[in-house]
Amino acid sequence: MTRSRCYREGVLTDEGFSLADVSEHLEDESAVVWVDLCAPKPEELQVLADELQLHTLAVEAAASGRQRPKFDRFPGHDFLTAYVVRLDVTTGELVTGEIAAFITSNALVTVRKDDEFQVDGLVARWDDKADINKHGVGALVHGLLDFIVDGHFEAVESLDDQIELLEDLLFDTRPHDRDVERRSFELRKSLVLLRRVVLPMREVVNSMMRRDVGLVPEQLMPHFQDVYDHVLRATEWTESLRDLVTTILETNLTIQGNRLNIITKKVTSWAAIIAVPTAITGFYGQNVPYPGFAHESGFIVSSVLIALMSGTLYLTFKRKDWL
User: Which range marks the domain in which residue 296 is found?
Assistant: First the structure.
């Protein structure tokens, strides 16, 4: 699938044209072209590389995928890789979608591996902020970064909500040790993956904003600064959630230990109570003469001792909150 758009002076003038027509549109110096390729074939990438004179290493990186988020500079163009993310709340798994972008002075080419990256949402973002499209390719790059970083924020918020549910599960009156441990592991795994995606974006956005790069015009600098602030907030939030999940795991272990201590204390207390009648009946069960042997008085004395001493132990343990 291929999608394309052409802007002139910030106004959408053409869309849906083929790769072979890209160079024709770029002959107009006022034109800014966007081309999107989803799971492209090698020959399609090669056509685009020939049209825009893209560097071989950048084309190979876009074709192979599995790159870390980065911003590289090549003669004649820049190269960006980033990831969109979303949290599957059912499994706790973080789903990622890689996108690569070639950035020239008047063209933006995005390459996706699959439909995980919702390109319709990106187009809607550009249409919503049509007033800044007149600032050239930098405006399209800003919309792309803004769309990606907003997705990071939504994923972090979803993880935060899931961790709050995990906290409620942790302090439920009924034990949920296995569920808490399994869910904690799933969320921690997702947070580690999210950190790998979010953390490098600070360097990516910061590199783009450098004046010597020349990608961001002065009019767009506040917009990129806003994206950078969002990246910092998402990074800090991710780090705090990782610490929170670790704390939940440690708290769960502490609660299990406390619960075990309470159970041990109760079992020990009942064992001490049961030991009293066992000792008394064992003593009176001796086959030797003793005061009250073979008489009704012996039975009465032993019963009174059992009731009195067992009751005393029960009240003592109850007062100490051992039962």
Answer: 261-319
